[in-house]
Specification:
There is one protein chain. The protein has 176 residues and is of the alpha+beta class. The protein has a single domain, classed as Alpha-Beta Plaits (2-Layer Sandwich). The chain is 34% helix and 20% strand. It is built from 5 helices and 6 strands; from the N terminus they run βββααββαβαα. A 4-stranded antiparallel β-sheet has the order 4-5-1-6. A two-stranded antiparallel sheet has the order 2-3. Helix 1 runs antiparallel to helix 3. The protein starts with 17 loop residues before the first strand and ends with a helix.
Length: 176
Amino acid sequence: MRRRTLRLRDFNYSSARGYYFTSCVTGREHLFGSVGESELFLNSAGQMVRDIWNKLPERFPSVTVDEFIVMPDHVHGIILLDETRYDQQGVGAGLAPPILKKGAPRDAPTLGQIVGAFKSITAKSINTLLGRTGPVWQRNYYERVIRNEEEWNALRRYIRENPLRWTLRQNALKHV
């Protein structure tokens, strides 16, 4: 059986812009901590995932990490490649056009390479920490090319509000 790709056909995933992604733990196991009353409590594995995320720019100099959250069984994050910027003051706000910096190498990392490295490093680290073997992450991941500032801000809000939605969903399940 052939897997269906979730990627945009003929899109250059190394182009300078923002990308949102979600990756889930295999079997949706609560591997990274818990959520209680809309508050996130990361265990050592969850803290390790967060720390590895924050170090991605050391491995990939053209990457800036933006909003990110580690949930008990998945992660959400925004990755910015090359000249993608957000003007915090609102002057000339918006995403930079999808162009590479002058002199940028033609072999700039793709979103898939960055997410793949993140998943590989975290899986090895978690398995070592927990004294286990086997997959940590589901095989694929969800991604979205961020098209404008309004979408960017909505995705940031979605990531930040994830613990609240988790609590609301858990409470709704209790009353079913």
